[in-house]
Amino acid sequence: MSSLTRTPGAARSGSRPRSPMAAPQSFLWTRRIVLTLLAGFVLLPVYVMVSSSLKPLQDVSGKFQWIPSTLTVQPYFDIWKTVPLAKYFVNSLIVASSATVLSVTIAVFSAYAVSRYRFRGKRVFTVTVLSTQMFPGILFLLPLFLIFVNIGSSTGVALYGSRGGLILTYLTFSLPFSIWMLIGYFDSIPRDLDEAALVDGCGPVGALFRVVVPAAVPGIVAVSVYSFMTAWGEVLFASVMTNDATRTLSVGLQGYATQNDVYWNQVMAASLVVSVPIVVGFLLLQRYLVAGLTAGAVK
């Protein structure tokens, strides 16, 4: 009879030899502990918001309790009565959506031109677009305010206090980053696709929309999410460039603080409600967003 050679670890039923490339157990446990602590650090404010939004006002104003003694959903109904939250919601949706559509449309044409064509001043244009991100937003507040006021007084076009003026304001922030990001994404798309489309009879615009744009969907989605989030949660310019009729959600939430009291439970409830579109959109577009943010990093 022939004898079989067995490894020491193979004598036990169901055991496998440990791979030399496997991480040690100490590293695995350290990673679990660190990730658990980070998850708790991130989820703790969310729990405080949710629990506070389900408490009566007197419980929120008093000593904080980790486990609410009384639960109520009344704050979620009161938020629509204390301030005109629905109007602010519509204003934010119109402004953020319009700024996103304009920013992405202009960025697609600009980035495609920079990526595919050679022209005088191309490098200067790219550096200028990128350098605008170095300046803080508050630096443009007073110049834009004066420009809008002077345009309104000289031409009669009311930009100050209007949704259109706020949309143009948000373009100054989202458009440079959108162009710069799409340039890197278009550079990662082979030029052979454009040339094949041109040979088949498409013009430059046809090649852009029929070939390049479908291949650049992840990058366009990432730019769209960035532009929408920037416009949705912006506070500084919205507090200066809007009035009672055009006020957005980020400014309208201040209406829950009156001279006599602060409706903390309604503030928490309203904050959760206005966060729903961003969270839902991020979850639905997460796959495209990750692909768009990492595209062009490795060529």
TrEMBL record:
Transmembrane region(s): 33-50, 88-112, 124-147, 167-186, 207-229, 263-285
Keywords (A to Z) from UniProt: Cell membrane, Membrane, Transmembrane, Transmembrane helix, Transport
Protein's UniProt keywords contain Transport: yes
Entries under InterPro entries matching the protein: BP-dep_ABC_trans_perm, MetI-like, MetI-like_sf
Domain annotation ABC transmembrane type-1: ranges: 89-285
Topology with respect to the bilayer: Multi-pass membrane protein
Subcellular location field: Cell membrane
Record family assignment: Belongs to the binding-protein-dependent transport system permease family.
Protein name, per record: Carbohydrate ABC transporter permease
Protein's organism: Streptomyces stephensoniae
Lineage: Bacteria, Bacillati, Actinomycetota, Actinomycetes, Kitasatosporales
